[in-house]
Design brief:
Strand content: under 5%
Number of helices: 8
Radius of gyration: 25 Å
Helix content: 55-70%
Shape: flat
Order of helices and strands: HHHHHHHH
Structural class: mainly alpha
Number of domains: 2
Length: 300
Amino acid sequence: MAGALRPVVILMLVASVLFVVDGIFDGVYPGGPAWFTGKYDNLAEIAYVFAIVNTLVAYFVARGSERSLIARMSLSVFFLIERPLTAFVLGPKPITSIATHFATALVELVILLSALRVWRLGRSYAEAEVDSLFALEGSTVGGLGAPAPEGSTPSARPAPRAGTPPPRSSWLIGVITLVLAIIFVADGAYLGYVPGGRAWTTSGEGSGWLVYLFAVVLLTVAIRAVHGGRIALRALIALSLVFFLERSFTPISLRESDPIVLALHGLAAFVSLALALAAASAIRGAQPRRESTVRSLEAA
């Protein structure tokens, strides 16, 4: 467990450093333009508070506190929403500060996934120990199990189809894809691309309806990906990364200032990244091909 927990603690310390760097880029330092001057409504200073709290939680996580690990996962969810939002809603910020906000959010996503994996690993160990203590019927004596009833044959579970990802991965891909498609549709509807709304064009500000096309393409590829198609899974990873970049930088290039639009773009960007990670995990978790063997039984 210590080896699995170490990367999480290191990433948490990296996040603390990024919080401090963000405060410096925002001008929050003695004599700086945002050092309790009312700029950003004096909310940029909270980055240092985040750094201190994050470091304290990292200390307790390193000591093996399960509650601290759960609390850190909750903080990661909060930071995944807070970092992209505060990059824009507090007013114009330097591009270095915006990049630091998104870099911190990316690190927080990795922390969340890593911490969740470690927590599930710890819970599985605990369940295994409980089962071994209380599973009296399946206990062995002297390394020998209970004899099988006469005339019974060992039961064999059907092997999963070769190349098929675990069912949990398929469900995860399906849910994340659906959430991302809903965000795309909500973005288009909020911008007014509905019947009787804004004009639909292929250039300039009238091309916002393309989010509907994004949703259709995404769902089409995901339908094949959840059934284990390796080409579809790879295509889903590529699409997710493209959407992540497009959603991240479109507000900057268009100088978008609407907080709702910024929130939808930021949320879509990180859901896209989560989808790419889920698809990559499904590829890695796919069952390898194994040659089937046929056993012959001789009559007694």
